[in-house]
């Protein structure tokens, strides 16, 4: 780790006036500093800022500095969000990591984290080692010739499925962005991962109120049960009325460069009965547009099966 200046602003305005990297839980930033992937000259500890709180009075509002563990255990948090958080990391890490930091975490691509390997995300223009390298964990959706790294966050998948927004503040004011639009596809600029503008920070996450968001779940498929990143995951929510699916939300992770919404699957579910056959038929569109690499072709079928599994688990819980 290289030398850096540490500051601890007492107000949001003071934090926004700084030019360093924000430190909340530090579970991503400190790791990348140790690996020499990030080399900030200034680190800004924002833990004293008034960015906490969980409000469930009208939808869900989560302060950016709320810890993952606290959000997961809060009784008013929708099940898909709670389960995604509980499956994200160990209890120790959930007690440290913040919601805002989780949404801003960087990819777990080994080539990104190995400073000896070419990586367009870390050093634009150097190439993507994963395309012709070891790419079993990499994306099959949303990729480009410059980057195939998967997005690492579990809870971002659940939040995208539930139409969450993030509130962003800067010296110029406040704006609200749909989380699905907040993340950028790699294209030819994989180093630009989000719509966060210079001088902005996330202050809170907002999830709109829907009675049926309580009928949601999150399924994560991984190589080992304890503390592992997803090979594939699915967040689903269903509004079932009179034996038919009135509305649906489906998003997946571990297979795409961003948290990936599946509108074709959602549309296929609407009006259908909540049966295994309907789920299988709807999930057949889950991998549309997939471009598998040499080592991750299995993710195409795994993606479809994971969506079906999540839908089945959700309907079995309702019985």
TrEMBL record:
<protein>
    <submittedName>
        <fullName>Xanthine dehydrogenase family protein subunit M</fullName>
    </submittedName>
</protein>
<dbReference type="InterPro" id="IPR051312">
    <property type="entry name" value="Diverse_Substr_Oxidored"/>
</dbReference>
<keyword id="KW-0560">Oxidoreductase</keyword>
<dbReference type="InterPro" id="IPR036683">
    <property type="entry name" value="CO_DH_flav_C_dom_sf"/>
</dbReference>
<dbReference type="InterPro" id="IPR016167">
    <property type="entry name" value="FAD-bd_PCMH_sub1"/>
</dbReference>
<dbReference type="InterPro" id="IPR016166">
    <property type="entry name" value="FAD-bd_PCMH"/>
</dbReference>
<dbReference type="Pfam" id="PF00941">
    <property type="entry name" value="FAD_binding_5"/>
</dbReference>
<dbReference type="InterPro" id="IPR036318">
    <property type="entry name" value="FAD-bd_PCMH-like_sf"/>
</dbReference>
<feature type="domain" description="FAD-binding PCMH-type">
    <location>
        <begin position="1"/>
        <end position="212"/>
    </location>
</feature>
<dbReference type="Pfam" id="PF03450">
    <property type="entry name" value="CO_deh_flav_C"/>
</dbReference>
<dbReference type="InterPro" id="IPR016169">
    <property type="entry name" value="FAD-bd_PCMH_sub2"/>
</dbReference>
<dbReference type="InterPro" id="IPR005107">
    <property type="entry name" value="CO_DH_flav_C"/>
</dbReference>
<dbReference type="InterPro" id="IPR002346">
    <property type="entry name" value="Mopterin_DH_FAD-bd"/>
</dbReference>
